Amino acid sequence: MSTTFALSLKTLRMSIFAGLAFIIAAGAADGQTKAPPASQEIVRAGTQPSLQGPADFFTGRVRVDPVWPANANIPAAAGLTTFEPGSRSAWHTHPRGQRLLVISGVGLTQEWGKPTQVIRPGDVVWCPPGVKHWHGAGPTTAMTHLHVTGTEPDGKNITWMEKVSDEQYNAR
Ligand code: MN
How many domains does the chain have? Predict the structure, then answer.
């Protein structure tokens, strides 16, 4: 039994060496025509400063912590948005849509012409392209969500509109 095991280990080692040799040979052949692949990149925690949600686009205290920018391969920007109680975005649309994942707290979202909905941790919201909506905290509870927002090649991913009035915010 141990002989069989040793044999199969030897076979495995030979396969690995054969595979490596093939990869090295292929790399050498490609070396003349292709640029080396891009390196893995780690953006370290604590290196992306928090941003305050601008008063033109948000009501109340809102903090945005950038997570990643859009790029050509994954054309969607992500960030964590933390809404203090009563705070919310203005009405807006996204040209390529947006996904929200509620991380903590209890918040609200509303599509134009439809009732406000309560959103809780683990809820995932899809906002289709061009659909007018807002998202924010509950009246007495903060809410943090991850947003993943489809981005146009020119960098545009949101069209801001009017503020959400207190009457609109408080309607249930
Ligand atoms: Mn949105």
Answer: 1
**pLDDT digits 0-9 by tens, 9-37:** 444 444 444 444 443 344 444 445 788 88
The residue to which tokens 């604590």 are assigned: 46
Q: What is the pLDDT of residues 139-167, one digit of tens each?
A: 999 999 999 999 999 999 999 999 999 99
CATH number of the domain encompassing residue 132: 2.60.120.10
Question: Which residue range(s) make up the domain with 90?
Answer: 56-170
**Residue 21 within a domain:** no
CA 47–ligand 1 middle distance (angstroms):
25
DSSP 35-59: PPPPPP----TT-S--EEPPTTTEE
Length of the chain: 172
For ligand 1, an ion, list residues with CB under 5 A: 98
Predicted TM-score (pTM) of the model is 0.78
Ligand 1 centre to CA of 86 (Å) is 17
